[in-house]
């Protein structure tokens, strides 16, 4: 299958906020900078943020229409970039349906990243948005400015804020800057985390690791292989269902990785909850361990010693033919953002694997990358965290296994 990498440049605005509003979006070939599609529309009276989200949505739709497989979405709206990257919560209820729509479009591509660019780097989309705002305000259209001279969109963008800056920047100084940015982003959304909040406004995520499989017992890497639950794992799933019922007798949905060891666990939980809907989410699948799939840690250490050392040392390194933790983080944050946008103030059970669940807990605790190799999550263990619209997070439980006694 042919692969097409594109860059989306999107913008939106309103004259008055709210006021006459419009958006613009440009899709470029990531290698040549060639413009593949343009979108622009007046949307009546709206806010800047609504228009910006509409621009992103239009850009994603256009990218899908031209056959893109990988997308780098760039905007000068820090709010939209941070919210779609899963670092900032969506406080405005009016933006949540738009964020959910954008998250749904993201799933059409193999990969999507979001990055911030200064306004001067977004002139083409900005011009389209301004023309649309003129139309919304009833002004005669101005001559459309010539598009900037195409340059390869893959050129470095030093000022861009990527979801995982360590991917785009090299060297120890860059890694330090990336971590500083991540900590600053977390602090900006959670600085009031000790203030009392009404529990009813939080979205509660009940995180469940699937039950045991034969590979669990043998301590083998189990990533994308669809290994079913063992008899013990099925018993664990049923016990976990009872524990979840005690923690959350009413849930909006049970959201699961599509692999059968998770969907079977999710179905047991949903049955205990009286038939709650089970929704599969591809972004919750386990890390792709590539050539290491099915091998034990000792076997990998023996056959791929240098690759193993590099993988343990950096989340940007992937197993041979596999996926890095940075790549897993991008899609897991995307999944969490979609959950928070879709189920605000409700309880959702999330059934997934070790790596995605560790990443969620690492982010919730604002921990470093070493956390991924130090936290242990048992099969069928339960963790609970609450997320408030203002960015506050409370981690209630990590790896609760009391319900598994005797199994």
Automatic annotation (TrEMBL):
<feature type="domain" description="RNase H type-1">
    <location>
        <begin position="2"/>
        <end position="142"/>
    </location>
</feature>
<dbReference type="InterPro" id="IPR002156">
    <property type="entry name" value="RNaseH_domain"/>
</dbReference>
<feature type="binding site">
    <location>
        <position position="261"/>
    </location>
    <ligand>
        <name>substrate</name>
    </ligand>
</feature>
<dbReference type="InterPro" id="IPR013078">
    <property type="entry name" value="His_Pase_superF_clade-1"/>
</dbReference>
<dbReference type="GO" id="GO:0004523">
    <property type="term" value="F:RNA-DNA hybrid ribonuclease activity"/>
</dbReference>
<feature type="region of interest" description="Disordered">
    <location>
        <begin position="136"/>
        <end position="162"/>
    </location>
</feature>
<dbReference type="GO" id="GO:0016791">
    <property type="term" value="F:phosphatase activity"/>
</dbReference>
<dbReference type="GO" id="GO:0004619">
    <property type="term" value="F:phosphoglycerate mutase activity"/>
</dbReference>
<dbReference type="InterPro" id="IPR014636">
    <property type="entry name" value="RNaseH/PGlycerate_mutase"/>
</dbReference>
<dbReference type="GO" id="GO:0003676">
    <property type="term" value="F:nucleic acid binding"/>
</dbReference>
<feature type="active site" description="Proton donor/acceptor">
    <location>
        <position position="286"/>
    </location>
</feature>
<feature type="compositionally biased region" description="Pro residues">
    <location>
        <begin position="140"/>
        <end position="155"/>
    </location>
</feature>
<dbReference type="Pfam" id="PF13456">
    <property type="entry name" value="RVT_3"/>
</dbReference>
<dbReference type="InterPro" id="IPR029033">
    <property type="entry name" value="His_PPase_superfam"/>
</dbReference>
<dbReference type="GO" id="GO:0005737">
    <property type="term" value="C:cytoplasm"/>
</dbReference>
<feature type="active site" description="Proton donor/acceptor; for phosphatase activity">
    <location>
        <position position="286"/>
    </location>
</feature>
<dbReference type="InterPro" id="IPR012337">
    <property type="entry name" value="RNaseH-like_sf"/>
</dbReference>
<dbReference type="InterPro" id="IPR050275">
    <property type="entry name" value="PGM_Phosphatase"/>
</dbReference>
<dbReference type="Pfam" id="PF00300">
    <property type="entry name" value="His_Phos_1"/>
</dbReference>
<dbReference type="InterPro" id="IPR036397">
    <property type="entry name" value="RNaseH_sf"/>
</dbReference>
<protein>
    <submittedName>
        <fullName>Putative phosphoglycerate mutase</fullName>
        <ecNumber>5.4.2.12</ecNumber>
    </submittedName>
</protein>
<keyword id="KW-0413">Isomerase</keyword>
<feature type="active site" description="Tele-phosphohistidine intermediate">
    <location>
        <position position="210"/>
    </location>
</feature>
């Amino acid at each position: 299958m042919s692969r097409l990498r594109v860059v989306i440049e999107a913008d939106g605005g309103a004259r008055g906020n709210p006021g006459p509003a419009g958006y613009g979006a440009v899709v470029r070939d990531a290698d040549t900078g060639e413009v593949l599609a343009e979108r622009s529309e007046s949307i009546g009276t709206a806010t800047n943020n609504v228009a910006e989200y509409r621009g992103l949505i239009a850009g994603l739709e256009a990218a899908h229409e031209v056959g893109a497989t990988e997308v780098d979405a760039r905007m000068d709206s820090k709010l939209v970039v941070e919210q779609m990257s899963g670092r900032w919560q969506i406080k405005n209820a009016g933006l949540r349906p738009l964020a959910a729509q954008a998250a749904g479009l993201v799933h059409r591509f193999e990969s999507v990243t979001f990055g911030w660019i200064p306004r001067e780097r977004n002139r083409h989309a900005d011009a389209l948005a301004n023309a649309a705002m003129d139309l919304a305000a009833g002004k005669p259209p101005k001559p459309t400015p010539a598009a900037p001279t195409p340059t390869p969109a893959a050129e470095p963008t030093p000022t861009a804020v990527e979801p995982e800056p360590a991917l785009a920047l090299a060297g120890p100084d860059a890694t330090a800057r990336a971590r500083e940015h991540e900590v600053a982003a977390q602090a900006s959304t959670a600085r009031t985390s000790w203030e009392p909040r009404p529990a009813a406004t939080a979205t509660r995520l009940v995180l469940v690791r699937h039950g045991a499989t034969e590979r669990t017992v043998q301590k083998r890497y189990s990533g994308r292989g669809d290994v079913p639950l063992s008899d013990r794992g099925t018993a664990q799933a049923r016990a976990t269902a009872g524990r979840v019922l005690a923690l959350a007798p009413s849930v909006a949905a049970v959201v699961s990785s599509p692999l059968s060891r998770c969907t079977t666990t999710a179905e047991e939980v949903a049955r205990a909850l009286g038939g709650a809907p089970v929704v599969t989410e591809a972004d919750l699948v386990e890390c792709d361990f590539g050539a290491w799939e099915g091998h034990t840690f000792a076997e990998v250490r023996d056959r791929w010693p240098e690759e193993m050392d590099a993988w343990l040392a950096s989340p940007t390194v992937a197993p041979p033919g596999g996926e890095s933790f940075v790549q897993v983080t991008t899609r897991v944050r995307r999944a969490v953002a979609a959950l928070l946008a879709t189920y605000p103030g409700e309880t959702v059970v999330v059934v997934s694997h070790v790596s995605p669940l560790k990443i969620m807990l690492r982010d919730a605790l604002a921990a470093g990358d070493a956390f991924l190799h130090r936290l242990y999550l048992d099969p069928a263990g339960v963790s609970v965290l609450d997320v408030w619209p203002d960015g506050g997070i409370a981690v209630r439980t990590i790896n609760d296994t009391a319900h598994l006694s005797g199994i």
